[in-house]
Design a protein that fits this description.
single chain, about 180 residues, alpha/beta, Glutaredoxin, 7-stranded mixed β-sheet
Length: about 180
């Protein structure tokens, strides 16, 4: 699996055009005429994305790095959605960070989000300089997905693994009162 991810990441690194925009919104006008979606996908390069990594407030943040082409990632998404629902009255924000290929946002990612009725905040990270940004997320991260960062203020844990609802909830409980 790591070999497939490495190969995919190399493709992403060399196959995508790096635009120097911090944030771009894909809305229904940028989707081909056969789509009738109202979903707005926030797309960031790493510089724009950094704001999600170091918020200092009384909220627990769970950032899950995933892609639609990653079977273990897709399998664990219901755990994140169920956690968000169960703890909706807590200070919890789940952010699903898609690492899908930019040329597939309209054809695969957005339809996937709509088909699965995902309620978590979803952003796309489009930055081909992975050797620079991966260690800034966590210095021990190899780049494999799924990967999850859980933090609150200055306390954080990082996981390079899949989660079930039970294992994810167990980790969350280290952060909530």
């Amino acid at each position: 699996m790591k070999y497939a991810l490495l190969l995919s990441l190399l493709f992403l690194m060399y196959g995508c055009k790096n635009e120097n925009t911090k944030t771009a919104l894909l809305d229904e006008k940028s989707i081909d005429n056969t789509s009738t979606t109202d979903f707005n996908l926030e797309v960031y390069d790493f510089e724009g994305f950094k704001k999600f990594l170091n918020r200092k407030d009384d909220t627990v943040y769970i950032l899950n790095f995933w892609a639609t082409w990653c079977a273990p990632c897709v399998k664990e998404l219901p755990a994140f959605e169920a956690l968000l629902h169960k703890y909706q009255n807590e200070n919890l924000e789940v952010i699903l960070v898609s690492l899908d290929f930019p040329n597939q946002y309209n054809t695969k990612l957005i339809p996937f989000i709509e088909e699965h009725d995902l309620k978590s905040k979803i952003v796309a990270l489009n930055d081909v300089d992975m050797d620079t940004w991966i260690p800034k997320v966590n210095p021990n991260w190899s780049g494999s997905i799924p990967a999850t960062l859980i933090y609150k203020n200055n306390k954080q844990t990082f996981f390079e693994q899949s989660f079930t609802f039970e294992t994810l909830e167990k980790e969350l409980k280290h952060f909530i009162k």
